Each structure stands twice: as structure tokens, then as C-alpha cells.
Amino acid sequence: MLFLKKEKLEYGLIGDFNSKTSVLPDYIIPDDNIIDILNLDEDNEILEYLFDYQNLLRNNIPLHRVSGCFCKPNNYGHRLLNLCKKINIYIVNSRVGDDKGVGARTFKDISVVDYLILSSQLFPLLQKFAIAEFEPLFSDCHSALCFEFQASLLPHTRGKLGDLNDTNQTFVKWNSNRSSEFVNCSQTDSEAILADVLISI
Hints:
By secondary structure, the protein is of the alpha+beta class. It has two domains: 2-152, no CATH class; 164-201, no CATH class. It contains six helices and eight strands. It has helices at residues 32-37, 44-50, 54-58, 75-87, 179-188, 190-196, and strands at 2-5, 8-16, 89-91, 114-119, 126-131, 145-149, 172-173, 199-200. Strands 1-2-4-3 form a four-stranded antiparallel sheet, with helices on one face. A two-stranded antiparallel ribbon has the order 5-6. Strands 7-8 form a two-stranded antiparallel ribbon. A hairpin with a 2-residue loop joins strand 1 (2-5) and strand 2 (8-16). The longest helix has 13 residues, at 75-87. The chain is globular.
């Protein structure tokens, strides 16, 4: 999921990441001494990036996560947490909704490997979040992540919902032939993910 909010691109990821993160932090609290030494306190853009986690606190979202999984973090978990820290996205599980303070298991009632992950600016739009009871009709092992967003339409889009059936519209589609590029880009450059992997039909 990609969201455009206030002319800034916000991120939303959901799915099975095969990542066991336990309760390790998905954020970094910057060291004030380093900021002073490097004279970073004059650059608002850098400060906004470094202190992005405070947007969670402003919206009463706890920084600390809990987990019903007692597994040790795995390599994929560490890689996912590093991605979160680099581009300021945060795991929703155990932070909001019915799962707040719970950290329900999502895989075989053993571990948490399925996540909803959002930019801090998207948390206020999230109205509901829960881990559904396992349903074998829908999955062999995973419990569904249930969530709802609430957002008003931008002024220039109101009254244009009928245009969604327009056959001349351009849509974005996943190109599975370029999946290796996605992996390479996600490991090196988060901006390149948007430029190189998501292509128009």
C-alpha cells in the first residue's frame, strides 16, 4: 500500500514477512549529544526524520510493543526491524485496536510473522485493528489481520468515484518478472522500490 498524504508519500505494508521480531524496537531514539556535535539541530528536515517516532507518542501509540510469541528474533526479523528504522515505518501489531497490549500470535498459534506496518502519519487514520481467529477456509496456517482506515477524500477527487470504471485509466500492477529487483532495491535503497519495481501497465 502506498498513500499520498499532504504531498508526501506514506508507506503501508501488510503480509507474512516470515520475520520474528519479538519485542525488539522498530525505532531509534537519537542521541542529543551527537545531534549537537554534528550541528544537526539547524536542519528541520533531518530533525523531522530523526524524531519521527514522536508522532506515535502524540497519538497515544505506545513505543514499546508486546508479543504473545516467545520465539527468539530471527534473521528476517532483524532485517525487517532495520527497514522500519531506516524509513520510519512502525509495526502496528500490539499497538492499537483489539490487539493493543496483546500481540496475538498469527501463525499456527505459535509465532507472530504477519504484520501491518505503517508510516507514523497513517496511525491516526487507522480505526480498527485485530488478529482474527484462525479460519482454515482462508489459510492453512495464518490468522487474518483485520483493519479499517477512515479518511476523507481529497477535494479534487470528490464526485469522481464514477471514473474508477474508466477503461482509459492507468493502474499499477506487480510485475513478478522483476521480483529480484524488488529484493535488491529493498536491501539497498527504499526510494528505488517505488521507481524500479512498481510499473504501470
